[in-house]
Design a protein that fits this description.
The chain is α+β, with helices and mostly antiparallel strands. It has one domain: 60s Ribosomal Protein L30, Chain: A. Helices cover 21% and strands 24% of the residues. It contains two helices and seven strands; from the N terminus they run E-H-E-E-E-E-E-E-H. Strands 1, 2, 3, 4, 5, 6 and 7 form a seven-stranded mixed sheet that branches. Helix 1 runs parallel beside helix 2. The chain starts with a strand and ends in an 11-residue tail after the last helix.
Length: 143
């Protein structure tokens, strides 16, 4: 339904948008903002996403998936009725900073894009969150 994207370098916007298109058949409304930095050193992008669960009875509960758990005191997501409010996501495993899966291999620095790897990591985690809530990224926006 709605996304907020925070990029530390707006020159990465095109790379972000290329990966974004892989995850949504109909993209949600989105705001993209340039930031001077994020909570984790080396982080380049944070994504906040609000979606809904189709055809459910009204309920309210915190959502937990197998994603790495943030160091802060917050829910991964919260479901209220057919809405899902996912917390802002960064490309961290919360133990080593930027997650290994979101890094370019230093032995092959010219293969891969740090921003694309971080966006994929975040969107994969959001996919896990929405699945745990009984929805999917395909249900974020209904065509």
């Amino acid at each position: 339904m709605k996304a907020q994207v925070f990029l530390t370098d707006l020159n990465n916007f095109n790379a972000f948008d290329e990966v974004w298109k892989d995850y949504f058949t109909v993209p949600p409304a989105r705001t993209t903002v340039g930031m001077s930095g994020l909570l984790v050193a080396g982080g380049r992008v944070e994504i906040e996403l609000i979606g809904h669960v189709p055809d459910t009875q009204s309920k309210r509960e915190a959502i937990t998936s197998s994603n790495p758990k943030p160091l802060t005191n917050c829910s991964e997501a919260f479901q209220a009725g057919d809405l899902i409010f996912a917390a802002g996501q960064i490309a961290s495993d919360f133990t080593t900073g930027v997650a290994q899966e979101a890094r370019v291999d230093p032995a092959f620095p010219y293969y891969g894009s740090p921003i694309k790897k971080q966006i994929r990591y975040i969107l994969d985690n959001l996919k896990n969150t929405f699945t745990a809530a009984g929805s999917s990224l395909d249900h974020v926006v209904k065509a």
